[in-house]
Amino acid sequence: MGGDNVLTVGILGGMGPMATVDLFAKIVECTPAACDQDHIKIIVYNNPQIPSRIEAILNGSRSPAGALIDSARFLENAGANLLVMPCNTAHYWYQDIQAAITIKLINMIENTANAVASRENSGDIVLFASAGTVQTALYQKAFLAKNISLLIPKPDEQQIISLAITAAKAGQLENNPYLGQLDEIMFAYQQAGANSFIGGCTEIPLLFKYSSRECCRIDPTRLLAQEVVRQALL
């Protein structure tokens, strides 16, 4: 399966580092390999010094656009010919990044919308994402283009989600102090008829595995990994 015709994938990472590791691991898991040589060549640029995407959107602080573009160019110059970026909020600058490079950057959010739209019936879907991703309506617009409406958490619920994301970035996963409250939010939406939840921040799928709720968890990181494998092995 492997060979010179297989694309080299570049991961524009560091937002955060554990989410970068998660995508790398899922690409490996999703690759139909029988030996080392069957796997995809991957260049990881873990750049945690990229300015906060959320602070830039919510508070007008330093834009990460320049650092994102520099990181994408670094990967292209290193030999990558397909890029992915495991940070949903950073896709607010997707067009700027794509315009600055000559290789393809897979849009994580559009990829998720395409995957969900291909299913027969996902029912009501709730978006668990950063406040920046919610405010910029990145997921809402992508899903609306597929004639799918998303349920957006109320402000008090969003505050819990944001706190859970911050704690996850600090390394608190199984011991995340907001896991119980996340489960309560999910339960309330399930009682109202929803049963699908999008992990629209790359830290959320890291927390999903510790949730006690039985529901459909939509993992954009895994969906991105599957698309990477599909495109890299064409």
TrEMBL record:
Keywords, sorted A to Z: Isomerase
InterPro entries for the chain: Asp/Glu/hydantoin_racemase, Asp/Glu_race, Asp/Glu_racemase_AS_1, Asp_race
Gene Ontology molecular function: any one: amino-acid racemase activity
Highest taxon of source: Bacteria
Alphabetical list of Gene3D superfamilies matching this protein: 3.40.50.1860
PANTHER family in the record: ASPARTATE-GLUTAMATE RACEMASE FAMILY, GLUTAMATE RACEMASE
Family listed: Belongs to the aspartate/glutamate racemases family.
Protein name per the record: Aspartate racemase
Organism of this sequence: uncultured Sporomusa sp
